[in-house]
Amino acid sequence: MLAGGTARNFAGSCTFRSRTGIGLGSPMAARNEPLSEYNRRRDFTKTREPKGKVARTSGDRKRFLVQKHDATRLHYDFRLEWEGVLKSWAVTRGPSLNPGDKRLAVRTEDHPLAYGDFEGTIPEGEYGGGTVMLWDTGWWEPEDDPTKALRKGKLSFKLHGGRMKGGWALERMRKRDGDKRENWLLVKETDEIASEDGESLIQGNLTSVVTGRTMDEIARGKCEKKARVWHSNRSTAANLKAGAIAEKGEARKR
Fold first, then answer.
1. 25 Ramachandran zone, left/alpha/beta (phi>0; psi -120 to 50)
2. Which are the contacts of 239, defined by CB distance < 8 A and separation ≥ 6?
3. Backbone dihedral region of 163: left (phi > 0), alpha (psi from -120 to 50 degrees) or beta?
């Protein structure tokens, strides 16, 4: 194990295991096996992705994260912790700060909470094969009960991350004949964080929020440039933006 929680991965690459202390917990029995589809799609003898286990969360703050994923097509996986799993959407063009940009977000299978610490390479030929970067992480505040909101088709929330902040919403699109998956829209709400230069969010942040690596460095197996220290005199957002790694419980105190 390397400094900052990085473990040597297969084929000379590195897989990051963060220590944010947000939303991780012990396994518990799954109801209706929400991670069965996740497990069915993966061969864990070939990929370093974590096995799917529903977990009991620790603390009141629920984690959110975004993983930049260079698979068949580059996209951003947006994940919200809820009911012991990560509810997940693939945002094809990535998030935008412009409220006028409605970004397609395709609903994907639930992921285990442990997936929120995954940064590395999924082997070619495996499901989702390609490079994965932990692009943002933090916690989220739903405006209403998430279970009911997801059922109704509109989930509004605030994000407290290193890069994504303020009000956002996920809105389900009307299903059309032939649609195999749920199509949603990820939309920035109008607030002090919003900007007409919506693309600046993606174009201005090209490295991992935790390890500081580029996609190319992750693909080549280069481990994080240096261990990042969590500074107690900084806010959670400032620490995450700097790529700091919290010791267990630090992030929950803020």
1. beta
2. 230, 231, 246, 251
3. alpha
C-alpha span between 219 and 131 (Å, rounded): 6
In this structure, what token pair is assigned to residue 247?
């010791």
Distances (CA, A) of 68 to 79, 171, 178, 182, 248: 11, 21, 28, 20, 25
Reading the chain (254 residues) residue by residue, the pLDDT tens digits are 333 333 333 333 455 544 443 333 333 333 458 898 999 989 999 988 988 888 877 678 999 999 999 998 999 999 999 999 999 999 999 999 999 999 999 999 999 999 999 999 999 999 899 999 999 999 999 999 999 999 999 999 999 999 999 999 999 999 888 778 899 999 999 999 999 999 999 999 999 999 999 999 999 987 655 445 445 556 666 666 555 544 434 444 44
Q: For residues 76 and 137, what is the distance between their CA atoms, to the nearest angstrom? A: 13
What the block records as the tokens of 201 is: 């969010």
HSE-up of residue 65 (Cα within 13 Å, Cβ side): 31
Segment holding 90, helix H or strand E = strand 85-91
Nearest CA to 68 among 164, 150, 2?
164
The domain segmentation of the chain, as residue ranges, is: 6-96+107-165+200-253
Report angle CA 62, 64, 66 to the nearest 5 degrees.
170
The residue behind tokens 């990820």 is 186
CA 86 remoteness from chain centre? 8
d(CA 16, CA 6): 4
Helices (H) and strands (E) in the chain, counts: 5, 11
